[in-house]
Amino acid sequence: MMSRISPSTEASPIRGWRDPLLMAGLLALVVAGLAGLAAATGWDETRAQLLRLGPWQLAALLGLSLVNYLMRGLRWHVFARRVGLPPGFLRDMRHYLGGFLMSVTPGRVGELVRVRWIRRETGMTLERTAPLFLMDRAADLVAMALILGAALALSTSGIAGAVPLAALALGTAVVATHSRLLSAVITRTYRVLGRWPRLFGRLRGMARTLAHFSHSGVLAAAVALGLIGWLAEGYAFYLLLVWLGADTPAATAMAIFVFATLAGGLTGAPGGLGGAEAAMVALLTLEGLPLETSIAATAVIRVTTLWFAVGIGAAVFPVAERLSKRKRHAVENR
Fold first, then answer.
1. Is pLDDT above 70 for 328?
2. What is the 3-state secondary structure (H, E, C) of 20-74?
3. In 3D, which of 202, 195, 254 has the Cα closest to residue 230?
4. Are 212 and 135 in contact (CB under 8 A)?
5. How far apart are CA 208 and CA 88, in angstroms?
6. Nearest-CA neighbor of 297 among 245, 231, 240?
7. How far is 27 from 21, CA to CA, in rounded Å?
């Protein structure tokens, strides 16, 4: 018989109104900042740039973003099978896409709601399933670091700080996906702090479960799926710049998109709000694009990537929540 789900595991990853209010505040600041820049350059110029885009072009941008989400969802399914989850492709995709609603929580920790859904439906413990979240983040870092490095090699213009950022992303991913190395880092940190032995004990237990992902075929598949997904969004950014009349090489456009996304993530803000937009506008302007084009491109790509994902999550989340509760009752009554 499956063990009952403890009340503590049912706590929502968003506590009260703190995270939603923080997200709303940051979003308001970003919108205000972009609006201020648009006003400084002239609303008519920015509006004219936005009107260059027709419905089919917006549909193409959304379609390429959807490719990214589906590839990463398939990767989540591969990882889920490695930790011993029973077969369930639709279940895994439902969990992954539904979790996008929480991607605009600080540090994206709200996406751990996927772990809660898995616990409800299968009874698997947090220690067994939490590494899914870690591997998902690490696989994204590997794919984005590789794309950024390749784009920089092919680009005719350099981006200050891009190489160290790519190295940092790749190094973090290596540590996060190597069971023994991560366990050693956790142990060393505990010895330095000398506090919270139970917490560090659980972290070491989670680190040991990373051995499930050490198979070279699994890692190769994960990196390949991540590359396809993030290249699709990077190509969407390149197409957007072309449609807005910019003569930016594809490699440069992809490098700017990936660098800005990683830079936004480093801020720890929900969805990289503020940091990603600022980096993108600045880099596009340094490439010689008019400010109205930089603002329009930044606003559109963030809507068709981050906020499109949040919209998908909002649609799938209630379904995932309802089904997980229904299946939890079935698990408890076994």
1. no
2. HHHHHHHHHHHHHHHHHHHHHHCHHHHHHHHCCCCHHHHHHHHHHHHHHHHHHHH
3. 254
4. no
5. 25
6. 240
7. 10
Two tokens, residue 226: 């991540």
pLDDT in tens, 228-254: 999 999 999 999 999 999 999 999 999
Helix crossing, 89-98 with 308-332: angle to 10°?
130
Q: Is 327 within 8 Å of 267 (Cβ atoms)?
A: no
**Neighbouring residues of 38: CB distance < 8 A, sequence distance ≥ 6:** 46, 292, 295
Q: How many CB atoms lie within 10 A of CB 161?
A: 12
Window from 24-33, 92-101, 138-147 with minimum mean pLDDT: 24-33
Q: Over 70: is that where the pLDDT of 310 sits? A: yes
> Is the separation of the CB atoms in 72 and 141 below 8 Å?
no
The predicted pLDDT at position 254 comes to: 94
The average confidence (pLDDT) of the chain is 79
Distance (Å, whole) CA 246 – CA 321 = 43
Whether the per-residue pLDDT at 40 is higher than 60: the answer is no
The three-state secondary structure class of 256 is helix
Query: What per-residue confidence (pLDDT) applies to 61?
Result: 97
The answer to whether residue 154 scores a pLDDT higher than 90 is: no
Q: Which residues contact 16 (CB under 8 A, 6 or more apart)?
A: none
Contacts of 93 (CB under 8 A, 6+ apart): 70, 73, 74, 76, 77
- Give me the residue label for tokens 């983040």: 137
> Looking at per-residue confidence, does 142 or 228 come out higher?
228
More confident residue, 145 or 187: 145
| Distance separating alpha carbons of residues 324 and 259, to the nearest angstrom | 36
Mean pLDDT over 280-284 rounds to 92
Q: How far is CA 108 from CA 58, 69, 177, 244, 274, in A?
A: 26, 16, 19, 31, 15
Q: Which one, of 68, 93, 135, 106, lies nearest residue 315 by Cα?
A: 93
Cα–Cα dist 147/185, whole Å: 27
For residue 194, pLDDT beyond 60: yes
Give Dmax (Cα) for the chain. Answer: 66
